[in-house]
Amino acid sequence: MTGTLITVAPTGAESSKADVPALPVTLDELVTTAKECEALGASVVHVHIRDDAARPTLDLGRLRATVAALRDSTDLIVQLSSGGAVTDPEADRLAVLDAGPDMASCTMGTVNFGDDVFMNRWEFVVELHTRMRDRGIVPEYEIFDLGQLAALQRLLDKYGLPAGGHVHVDLVMGVPGGMPGTTEALVACRQAMRDLPEGTTFSATGIGRSTIPVMLASLSTGGHLRVGMEDTVTYAKGRPVESNMQLVARAVGFAQLAQRPPLTAAQARTLLGVPV
Ligand code: KMH
Ligand code: ZN
C-alpha cells in the first residue's frame, strides 16, 4: 500500500490545559477534534483522556464512554494509550483494555522520560501483548530506543504474532532519555526492523522540534506519520500550535508532496489488520 497512515495523538498525558489552552481535554473537545482530523486525512486516533479537572486519568467508565463516542462520531481506528502517565500503576494500565478499543499502545521497554521514568517491565509487556491478543485488540508497539526493537523481536519469537497477524511499530523519537529525533536514528531503526516479521510497518513521531525532521525521514524511508499535541505544542519557532488540525494538515501536505496521500480509515484497517 503506497499511501500514508496518519495517526493523530491529540492530548497526551504530559501537557497541562493551563499551559496549553488549545489542548482537547473534555470528551466534546476530543470528539470534535477527532472528526475534524479525520476529515483532513487522519485514520487513527491515539487517545489519552482527562478528568473534570483536566488531569490525566485511566478511569474505566470514562474510557468506555470515550471509545463509544469516537465510534459514534467517526470511522477512525480508536487506539487507547496503555502507557497513560508515568505515575499510572500497571494494573490500571492493563485495565485500559477492558474498554474494548480497536488498538492499544504497547511500549517495549523502560525509558527515562525527562526527569521521570516510564516503567515497562518485561513481564508487564508480555502481559499486555498476550491480553491484547486474547481479546482481539491490535497493538501498536511503541519504540523509544533502538534496543526496544530487539525486545519486540524477542517478544514475537517467544509469544507469537499479535491479534490480526500484522506487526505495526511506532517510533517515538526525541524524548529526553530516549533515542534522538534524527534521520540517522530513524535509519538505524529501519535497519533493525528487517529482523521483524515480513510486512512489518512503522510510523514515527518526533517530539518537540524534531517533529519535521522525523516526518521527512519517515516518509522518505517508507514509514507512516503520527502527529498531534501529545508530541508537539510549538508549530514553528515562537508559534504555539493552534490545534491538532493544524498539525494533521501539515502532515497531509508532506504526505501528498511525497506522493503518498493519506489512507482512509478503511484502508488503514486493512493495512493494520484491524477488523471493521
Ligand atoms: N505518556 C507517556 C508516559 C503511550 O501512550 O503508550 C507514555 C505514552 C506512551 O504516551
Ligand atoms: Zn500516548
Automatic annotation (TrEMBL):
Coiled coil: none annotated. Its cofactor is Zn(2+). Keywords: Metal-binding, Transferase, Zinc. It comes from the Bacteria. Signal peptide: none annotated. GO terms for molecular function: 3-keto-5-aminohexanoate cleavage activity; metal ion binding. This is 3-keto-5-aminohexanoate cleavage protein.
